[in-house]
Backbone:
């Protein structure tokens, strides 16, 4: 699920945990804001596509696909894409974008995935892991549905940004949550994310059986310089998101197929 902005408009502690991260309640407003934003359109999604590389003919799972912009970009490059998201409202928007034949499923990443072992060549997880307190079960499932040699390409909030989000600063080495309200087109939505140190992220990947291939801190698309001059400078000089490519070792399963 893509992220609208690196900085929320209003900091607040949500009073009703059941309404936290409820994308169904603001799916239309979120998707509209996300469609052409600096952070998503000119930074995060292009970076994910660069890391994915040539996906023609590859079976790709878009884990946390939201309204489907990354799914569409991958499909346009020749990938065979399956999208999953916990929000039925966001998936309805994805189906409107992608067509009735699109392979989309309502799935919570904290649950077992409804796919066979080795079903995919790649998994993309765009700004979704930081919604989870415990990455372990989710990463284990993502590894299970990847073939030997398959890749998980993930973007998350940069740990330096999450650490500096509030004062007083939290314990950097602890996994802790932070909450705030997004305001989109006059509509307020309560959000909660989980921060963790860099070493804990890497440990989670390796514990799940992945091999670290790439850590990336990309620059925004130069095309955004004239469209968003102030935001472009900030995004070019300050950390925002962190990107990983991790792989399933071929030798672990004993097959290159």
Residues:
């Amino acid at each position: 699920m893509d992220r609208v902005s690196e900085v929320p408009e209003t900091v607040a502690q949500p009073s009703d945990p059941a309404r936290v991260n409820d994308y169904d309640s603001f799916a239309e407003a979120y998707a509209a804001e996300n469609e052409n934003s600096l952070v998503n359109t000119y930074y995060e999604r292009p970076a994910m596509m660069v890391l994915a590389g040539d996906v023609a003919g590859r079976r790709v799972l878009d884990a946390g696909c939201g309204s489907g912009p990354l799914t569409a970009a991958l499909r346009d490059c020749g990938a065979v894409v399956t999208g999953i998201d916990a929000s039925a409202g966001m998936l309805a928007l994805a189906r409107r974008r992608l067509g009735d034949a699109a392979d989309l499923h309502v799935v919570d990443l904290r649950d077992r995935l409804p796919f066979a072992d080795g079903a995919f060549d790649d998994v993309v997880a765009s700004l979704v892991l930081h919604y989870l307190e415990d990455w372990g079960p989710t990463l284990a499932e993502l590894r299970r549905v990847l073939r030997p040699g398959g890749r998980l390409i993930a973007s998350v909030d940069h740990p330096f940004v999450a650490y500096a989000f509030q004062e007083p600063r939290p314990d950097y080495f602890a996994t802790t949550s932070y909450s705030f309200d997004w305001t989109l087109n006059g509509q307020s939505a309560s959000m909660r994310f989980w921060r963790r140190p860099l070493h804990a992220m890497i440990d989670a990947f390796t514990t799940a059986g992945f091999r670290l291939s790439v850590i990336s801190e990309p620059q925004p698309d130069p095309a955004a310089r004239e469209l968003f001059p102030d935001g472009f400078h900030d995004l070019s000089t300050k950390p925002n998101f962190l990107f990983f490519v991790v792989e399933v070792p071929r030798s672990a399963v004993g097959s290159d197929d």
